[in-house]
Structure formats: structure tokens, C-alpha cells
């Protein structure tokens, strides 16, 4: 795509503007580092455009606060205080979701994943957000906790102009088929190969 120009112009009856502004399903997959990092960079761009952003983390522990969460929540607070950027919601699966914490009980992760997907379906139906970031969502699909065919059908039929970005390894081929943009992160070298653990500011 030299200078950002598409390689082909389809005969679909749409204007350049209409084609440019179609909502996208984006998938960041592969064994390499950077899938979530790239998705959160995209979310920051979307915030700057005033988009409403919903983040749903499907695997990371509710007790583990990553750096991007602090930044995105601060941006959401800035929007609430000044009107700059867009609103941000951040929901994390762990001992239940942010909206339904289960105090003192061990979460059933499969049920929690299904509950999270059901909530996302409801939000898609009502066009709640402009951008949905479903972090590590490939894993519940891989493990059979969420039905892949249901995800694919829902994403394909979503109304309005709602963008969705999904991260995680081993994305199902059916998800890749419905996606508009697929990036595979491939590891060439990693500090862990030389025995170096993750470090502050790089991994979190």
C-alpha cells in the first residue's frame, strides 16, 4: 500500500468516503509479543478522536493492574472532567466481571467468559461503544468457553459503525475469515530466551 493507497478499488457502488469509514473487525494474533500493546495504542488513537471505548479483558487476573489500564482510565477521567477525547469503560474478568464481582468465591472462568461475551453482544446490539477491545478473547474461543460461530455471526451482523479489535494467540480460522484486518505477531528474538524476566515499563 504505497503512501497509504489501497492496492485495488472494488466495484461495490460505494464512494471513497463510504468505503473508508466502514467499521472494522481487527485481530492481533500470533506467538510474538505486542498484540495487546498494539490494540491499546489503537484505543488511544480512538480516544483522541472522541470515540467511546469499551475494554474487556478475558484472561488477566482482576488483581493484576497493567499500565495501559491506568492510562486509559485516566483518559476516561479526563474526558469526564473536560470533555476532551472520549469516554472509557474498563472491565476485567477475574473473580467475576467488573459489573458483577463475586466476593469471597472462586470464579468459574468458563461461565465468566460466557457472561462477558453475552454482555458484549448486548452492547453491540444497542451500539453502546465505538471501539470494543476484547483482550485475550481468542483463548475462551479456543477453550470452548465461548461459541466461535456465535461470535462470528454476531460480529458480521453488528449494526452501525462499531469497530472491534480482538487479541490473543491461536485465533480461530473462522474469526480470521470474518475479520477485515489481521496481524500476526511473530517472535524473532525475545529477552526471555536469554533468561531475562519481564521488566517494569516494558511488560507492565
From TrEMBL:
<dbReference type="InterPro" id="IPR003724">
    <property type="entry name" value="CblAdoTrfase_CobA"/>
</dbReference>
<feature type="region of interest" description="Disordered">
    <location>
        <begin position="1"/>
        <end position="22"/>
    </location>
</feature>
<dbReference type="GO" id="GO:0008817">
    <property type="term" value="F:corrinoid adenosyltransferase activity"/>
</dbReference>
<keyword id="KW-0808">Transferase</keyword>
<protein>
    <submittedName>
        <fullName>Cob(I)yrinic acid a,c-diamide adenosyltransferase</fullName>
        <ecNumber>2.5.1.17</ecNumber>
    </submittedName>
</protein>
<dbReference type="InterPro" id="IPR027417">
    <property type="entry name" value="P-loop_NTPase"/>
</dbReference>
<dbReference type="Pfam" id="PF02572">
    <property type="entry name" value="CobA_CobO_BtuR"/>
</dbReference>
Amino acid at each position: 500500500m504505497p503512501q497509504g493507497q489501497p492496492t485495488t478499488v472494488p466495484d461495490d457502488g460505494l464512494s471513497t468516503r463510504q468505503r473508508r469509514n466502514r467499521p472494522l473487525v481487527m485481530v492481533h494474533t500470533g506467538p510474538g509479543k505486542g498484540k495487546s500493546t498494539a490494540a491499546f495504542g489503537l484505543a488511544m488513537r480512538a480516544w483522541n478522536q472522541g470515540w467511546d471505548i469499551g475494554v474487556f479483558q478475558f484472561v488477566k487476573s482482576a488483581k493484576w493492574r497493567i499500565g495501559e489500564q491506568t492510562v486509559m482510565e485516566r483518559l476516561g477521567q479526563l474526558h469526564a472532567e473536560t470533555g476532551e477525547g472520549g469516554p472509557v469503560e474498563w472491565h476485567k474478568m477475574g473473580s467475576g466481571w467488573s459489573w458483577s464481582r463475586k466476593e469471597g468465591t472462586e470464579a468459574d472462568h468458563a461461565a465468566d467468559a460466557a457472561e462477558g461475551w453475552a454482555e458484549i453482544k448486548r452492547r453491540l446490539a444497542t451500539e453502546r461503544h465505538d471501539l470494543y477491545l476484547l483482550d485475550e478473547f481468542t483463548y475462551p474461543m479456543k477453550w470452548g468457553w465461548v461459541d466461535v460461530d456465535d461470535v462470528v455471526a454476531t460480529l458480521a451482523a453488528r449494526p452501525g459503525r462499531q469497530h472491534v479489535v480482538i487479541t490473543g494467540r491461536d485465533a480461530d480460522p473462522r474469526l480470521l475469515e470474518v475479520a477485515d484486518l489481521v496481524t500476526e505477531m511473530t517472535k524473532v528474538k525475545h529477552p526471555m530466551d536469554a533468561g531475562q524476566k519481564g521488566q517494569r515499563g516494558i511488560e507492565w
